[in-house]
Amino acid sequence: MSLSTLPAWALIAAGLLVLPPARAQSDSERQAQQPIPSARNFFGLGIGAFPQTSGSSDLRTLVLPVIQYTWGDTAYVTGLKAGLWGYVSADRSLRVGLYAEPRFGYDASDNARTAGMADRDFALDAGPSVRWTTAAGVLNLDVGFDVTGKSKGQVAQLQFIRPLLTGRGFRLNGIAGATWQSADMNDYYWGVRASEAAAGRPAYRAGAGTALSLGLSGLYSSGPGGALFYGVSLNRLSDAQADSPIAERSVTPVIYFGYGWRL
């Protein structure tokens, strides 16, 4: 599927809004609505590893609190993403609202390919969000704008989550996604300004493009309320990102694990 322009994503959102409501949700459908496959609210502490700078081979690790909490049909926090629902269908299969999610930058000194460049700052994406729950899985669509003005760009994310294992002791979700980023956003994080060009690092202006991802997210119960959680994903950079002189690889991993408590 080629997703090269933002209007294409808008058409997908419009199509979801006119679809008839799905049947009442099952336990597996509720499981697929969460990044960590727990059908209940969840708190924990996790360790994550992801590329140190955009497209780098070296990984950096962070220890972060994990919060997965839903306030009825009104609001939610899942990982680093938070949102408000403005419309919920009668059977709760279709939800429309607003979301916000941070976007991490990088310290240019952390990698030889970016050394001497300016740091890329932390930013916040926010915009409309749609969740459609079906018997096959959950489809999420987010269209975000850099409200902090760091890149002045836009992003559209389409994600499908399917429950693979739904037992009480062991749960597993499969996750597939596509993320389109505008030229301004890609250029801020993947581009090389003329003033940053150096030997082996020519100036580069990144265009718009769509990255793809595949992953697994699991939960293993240990005791009455505790559980181990873990996940891994592989992300295929868009051509505009992979062609950047600061990118060392076109496929980047994200790995995390931790321990938490279901509420």
Description:
There is one protein chain. The longest helix has 13 residues, at 6-18. The protein has helices at residues 6-18, 27-31, 183-190, 239-242; strands spanning 42-51, 59-71, 75-78, 81-88, 94-103, 123-133, 138-146, 154-166, 170-181, 209-221, 226-236, 251-262. With 263 residues, it is mainly beta. A twelve-stranded antiparallel β-barrel has the order 1-2-3-4-5-6-7-8-9-10-11-12. It has one domain (6-17, 31-262): Porin, CATH 2.40.160.40. Residues 1-23 have low confidence and may be disordered.
Question: Which key phrases capture this entry?
Answer:
4 helices, twelve-stranded antiparallel barrel, 263 residues, 11% helix, single chain, Porin, mainly beta, disordered N terminus
Question: Could you write a compact summary of the structure shown?
Answer:
The protein is mainly beta and 263 residues long.
- CATH top level is Mainly Beta
- Give the spatial strand order of the biggest sheet: 1-2-3-4-5-6-7-8-9-10-11-12
What is the overall number of helices? 4
How many DSSP E strands? Answer: 12
Overall 3D shape = globular
Low-confidence stretches: 1-23
CATH-derived topology = Porin
For this structure, what is the CATH homologous superfamily? monomeric porin ompg
Number of domains: 1
Characterize the main sheet: 12 strands, antiparallel, barrel
What portion of the residues fall into strands of 2 or more residues? over 45%
Encode the helix/strand succession as letters.
Answer: HHEEEEEEEEEHEEHE
